[in-house]
């Protein structure tokens, strides 16, 4: 009867923890799963023009998650669109001059958890990817801990702790979490291999390793493999130290699983290695010796203690690289699991508690300890050129395992045979003493740092609720450990602790990922549509993050800047145009230094084929007309919804200037105010506007108008109105009506071709074709001098070569572009004499080749970062093609590995189906071939132990 009661209580407890997980998913992911929200932080786009003109949405993040919006999702969208067209895009040629894409695992689309990106609408897919991550993390942890004989409820709760740990939440929507979500599965596969010693389990290891390698973030995979390798060695030695044959078999199978897993991923690993070897990563040379600040350990239980970078708020560090959250209740359970060594030393999981305690301390020492440790190990692969902060991925896992062991200690009171009970007591006490010491040190250092930064009040407030949760968890655990109250106290603990874990995790999740408005998911504005229809094979760019040019890959538009690894000479050209263009080594965007005047006079932009330049609505440039004679008339008041008019002489027009006579205050800070103008000249009507956060009295408000083609001599009437203000618009009066002045075009090499409330687009009249003919050459061998020569200006028909080549005849040619699709470019050239076909892309990378009429020719370094090929006189078909280096060999190796895995599983299936095989033999294989168990008594009753 007691056994049945214990089983019933166990099932009830499992159901309770599962219900907690389901409620957590419903509360956090539910709105995004049913399409009410999108999990990607796209609201940040509304902070920039032209989207800003429609009003800012303050929910979501303003900066720290920018990578997911300007790099990850645009890359996924480009890959998906191209794949749907029946082509694998090994190269993207739209941003940053071009870079490898589908041939490398950076986006992690071959990771199984990325499947929703390929089949669901992109605005909906992030939520389902996160759901798969939760399933993988919780399911993998459940399978792993069950292998260690941990109870079902404890295993599920540990999975929830890991799935909601700091790394898993703050890195959401990057490939990093899709890799980290497989860490528990990796340990489950390793544990199966150690216990069962079968080839099929080595194949399982291979599948998990390959999925992680294809996940696009080698650092997490590397840290995981280091930890799993140490775990494998510890477990194998403990279990088979007296059985050399079994120990050797385990080692061979483990190495085989690792090797086959790497081979399975070679389709992307070999191209990645080739690209990695040719990339300049000097900027990462110091990453291996930079550790995390000790004060950041407060985020283990108080994730908001140093800010979460929401709406741009950040105190001292990037929260994405700082937060190590597991939760207050989880920390208490983890310490309980670490302290209760004698409770969890079962025969099947022998040594596992010791390993995870030591591993947790080692990770803390590496990540948050003295740099002396990092200087010792930073020469190792992964540690050498990766920021050690990413080690938080495995810290969350080891702590979550200890959480499972601690919760299991509350559920099932185990009595193991202990020769020296006092030693177990000393060990348990040491765990709590070390934990308290680390906590006091973290609080002290956080106090010192926050006092210096003048934000200690915010930190103190952020510690209150997590601190109370920790105290409540300690009290609940303490009551459950009191012998007289054990039965009722344990039931209280088993019910309350999962709720405390899930509730704090849900708060943290929602704080970081509130879900954004689906209508903000890369809205296509009229500015985008204009560029789409007019850009052709050329480029556009912008200043001060107008248009957020790095998102151009999502829209299929070509820019000179972007978010990708930049070829060195391409980055040098960008810096020559704008010294502040390279915001980071992998992110470029022109700064406010690139005024329209500066843009108009940039030989570098000419060479890059930047034909259009987008400015914020305040960037009107030109010659302002002479104001009319002053008027003694009272200012003109325009009621809400009303219009005022003025007249200016006919002729080309870039804008109109009006003068508010009273402050215009926005009714909503997020929505601002918008001036609207309608220009009428004869039968032509041009509409435009300008968004502003507000306009003060006496301000000169210049509103851009795309009227450079207006005819002289035809009078122009301008109608002005405003919306979004708290009061009526009051404008200064002129000789007749509202006072206004025209802005006339200047002889600056620009033409204002489009304007609305959110943007101004200038056409650069001096831009060269991106795919062009050069009838003359100039040889400059030094790369630095090449950039200087181009910045000083070179005749339009001249290409600057890095080495002497065939002579050019100085005669023209007609170039017709036949294909321009990323990794394939072709053109038809009708040349009057010999010359060079030049492509203004960063194609001086391995994998690019060229042919003239089907015959291979060598690519020539041209214009510092670009390429050219010599072409003789006559009519020719020129083709440039990108073939990812190593991809064919990698595909063959991946196919071989896939065949091996299929063969192993096929052999296992046939062996199990072999006629005459005893049923008990099949069942025996599910049990571990382990030594005799340690004598112990186990109680499955939730309330009391067996006698």
Query: Hey, roughly how much beta strand do the residues contain?
Result: 15-25%
Overall pLDDT score? 89
List unreliable stretches of 5+ residues: 414-419, 919-947
- Helix-residue proportion: 40-55%
Shape: globular
Give the total of domains: 4
The count of strands amounts to 33
Structural class: alpha+beta
The tally of helices reads: 29
Q: How many angstroms separate the termini?
A: 15 Å
Strand order of the largest sheet: 25-26-32-28-29
The biggest beta sheet, please? 5 strands, antiparallel
Global Rg? 33 Å
Could you characterize the architecture of this molecule?
The chain is of the alpha+beta class and 947 residues long. It folds into four domains: 2-30 and 124-512, no CATH class; 68-120 and 526-614, no CATH class; 623-757, Jelly Rolls; 772-882, no CATH class. The protein is 43% helix and 17% strand. The chain has 29 helices and 33 strands. The strands form eleven sheets. The chain has a five-stranded antiparallel β-sheet with strand order 25-26-32-28-29, with no helix packed on it. Strand 25 and strand 26 form a beta hairpin. Helix 5 crosses helix 6 (152-163) and helix 14 packs across helix 20. It is globular. The two termini are 15 Å apart.
């Amino acid at each position: 009867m007691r056994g049945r009661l214990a089983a019933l209580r166990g099932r009830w407890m499992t159901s309770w923890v599962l219900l907690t997980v389901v409620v957590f998913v419903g509360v956090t992911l539910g709105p995004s799963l049913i399409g009410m929200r999108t999990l990607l932080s796209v609201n940040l786009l509304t902070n920039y023009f032209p989207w800003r003109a429609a009003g800012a949405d303050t929910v979501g993040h303003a900066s720290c998650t920018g990578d997911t919006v300007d790099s990850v999702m645009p890359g996924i969208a480009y890959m998906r669109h191209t794949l749907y067209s029946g082509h694998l895009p090994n190269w993207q040629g739209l941003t940053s001059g071009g870079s490898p894409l589908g041939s490398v695992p950076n986006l992690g689309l071959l990771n199984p958890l990325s499947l929703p990106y390929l089949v669901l609408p992109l605005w909906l897919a992030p939520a389902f990817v996160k759901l798969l991550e939760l399933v993988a993390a919780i399911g993998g942890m459940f399978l792993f801990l069950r292998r260690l004989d941990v109870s079902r409820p404890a295993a599920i709760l540990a999975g929830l702790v890991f799935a909601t740990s700091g790394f898993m939440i703050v890195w959401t929507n990057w490939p990093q979490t899709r890799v980290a979500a497989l860490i528990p599965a990796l340990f489950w596969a390793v544990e199966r291999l150690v216990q069962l010693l079968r080839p099929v389990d080595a194949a399982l290891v291979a599948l998990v390793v390959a999925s992680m390698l294809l996940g696009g973030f080698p650092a997490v995979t590397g840290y995981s493999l280091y930890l799993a390798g140490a775990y494998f060695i510890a477990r194998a030695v403990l279990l088979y130290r007296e059985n050399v044959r079994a120990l050797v078999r385990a080692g061979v199978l483990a190495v085989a699983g690792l090797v086959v897993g790497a081979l399975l991923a070679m389709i992307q690993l070999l191209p990645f290695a080739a690209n990695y070897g040719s990339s300049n990563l000097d900027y990462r040379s110091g990453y291996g010796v930079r550790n995390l600040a000790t004060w950041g350990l407060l985020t283990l239980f108080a994730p908001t203690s140093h800010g979460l970078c929401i709406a741009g708020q950040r105190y001292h560090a990037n929260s994405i690289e700082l937060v190590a959250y597991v939760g207050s209740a989880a920390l208490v359970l983890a310490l309980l699991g670490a302290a209760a060594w004698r409770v969890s030393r079962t025969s099947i999981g022998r040594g596992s508690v010791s390993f995870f305690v030591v591993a947790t301390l080692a990770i803390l020492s590496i990540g948050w300890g003295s740099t002396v440790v990092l200087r010792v190990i930073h020469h190792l692969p992964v540690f050498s050129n990766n920021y050690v902060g990413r080690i938080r991925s495995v810290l969350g896992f080891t702590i979550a395992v200890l959480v499972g062991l601690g919760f299991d200690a509350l559920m099932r009171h185990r009595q193991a045979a202990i020769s020296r009970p006092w030693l177990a007591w000393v060990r348990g006490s040491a765990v709590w003493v070390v934990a308290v010491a680390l906590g006091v040190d973290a609080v002290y250092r956080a106090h010192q740092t926050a006092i210096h930064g003048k934000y200690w009040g915010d930190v103190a407030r952020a510690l209150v609720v997590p601190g109370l949760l920790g105290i409540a968890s300690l009290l609940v655990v303490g009551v459950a450990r009191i012998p007289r109250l054990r039965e009722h106290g344990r039931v209280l603990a088993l019910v309350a602790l999962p709720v405390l874990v899930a509730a704090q995790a849900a708060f943290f999740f929602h704080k970081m990922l509130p879900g954004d408005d689906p209508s903000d998911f890369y809205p296509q504005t009229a500015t985008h549509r204009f560029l789409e229809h007019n850009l052709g094979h050329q480029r556009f760019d912008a200043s001060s993050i107008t248009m957020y040019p790095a998102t151009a890959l999502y829209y299929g538009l070509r820019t000179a800047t972007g978010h990708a690894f930049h070829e060195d000479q391409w980055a040098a050209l960008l810096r020559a145009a704008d010294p502040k263009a390279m915001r980071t080594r992998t992110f470029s965007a022109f700064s406010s230094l690139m005024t329209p005047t500066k843009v108009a006079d940039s030989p570098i932009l000419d060479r890059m084929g930047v034909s259009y330049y987008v400015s914020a609505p305040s960037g009107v440039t030109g010659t302002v007309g002479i104001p009319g004679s002053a008027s003694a008339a009272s200012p003109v008041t325009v009621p809400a919804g009303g219009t005022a008019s003025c007249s200016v002489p006919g002729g080309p027009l870039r804008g109109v200037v009006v003068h508010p006579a009273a402050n215009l205050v926005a009714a909503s800070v997020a929505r601002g105010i918008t001036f609207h103008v309608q220009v009428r000249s004869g039968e032509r009507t041009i509409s435009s506007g300008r968004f502003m956060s507000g306009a003060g009295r006496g301000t000169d408000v210049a509103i851009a108008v795309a009227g450079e083609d207006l005819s002289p001599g035809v009078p122009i009437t301008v109608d002005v109105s405003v919306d979004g203000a708290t009061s009526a618009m009051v404008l200064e009066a002129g000789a007749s009506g509202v006072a206004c002045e025209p802005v006339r075009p200047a002889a600056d090499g620009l033409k204002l071709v489009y304007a609305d409330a959110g943007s101004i687009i200038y056409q650069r009249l001096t831009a060269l074709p991106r795919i062009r003919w050069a009838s003359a050459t100039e040889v400059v061998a030094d790369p630095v001098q090449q950039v200087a020569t181009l910045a000083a200006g070179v005749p339009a028909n001249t290409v600057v070569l890095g080495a002497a080549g065939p002579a050019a005849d100085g005669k023209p040619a007609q170039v017709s572009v036949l294909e321009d699709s990323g990794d394939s470019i072709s053109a038809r050239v009708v040349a009057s004499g010999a010359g060079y076909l030049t492509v203004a892309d960063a194609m001086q990378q391995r994998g690019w080749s060229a042919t003239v009429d089907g015959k291979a020719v060598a690519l020539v370094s041209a214009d510092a970062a670009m390429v050219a090929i010599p072409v003789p006189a006559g009519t020719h078909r020129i083709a440039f093609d990108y073939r990812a280096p190593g991809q064919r060999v990698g595909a063959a190796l991946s196919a071989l590995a896939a065949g091996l895995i299929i063969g192993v599983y096929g052999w296992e299936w046939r062996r199990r189906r072999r006629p005459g095989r005893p049923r008990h033999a099949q069942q025996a294989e599910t049990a571990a071939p382990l030594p005799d168990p340690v004598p112990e008594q186990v109680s499955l009753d939730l309330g009391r132990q067996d006698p």
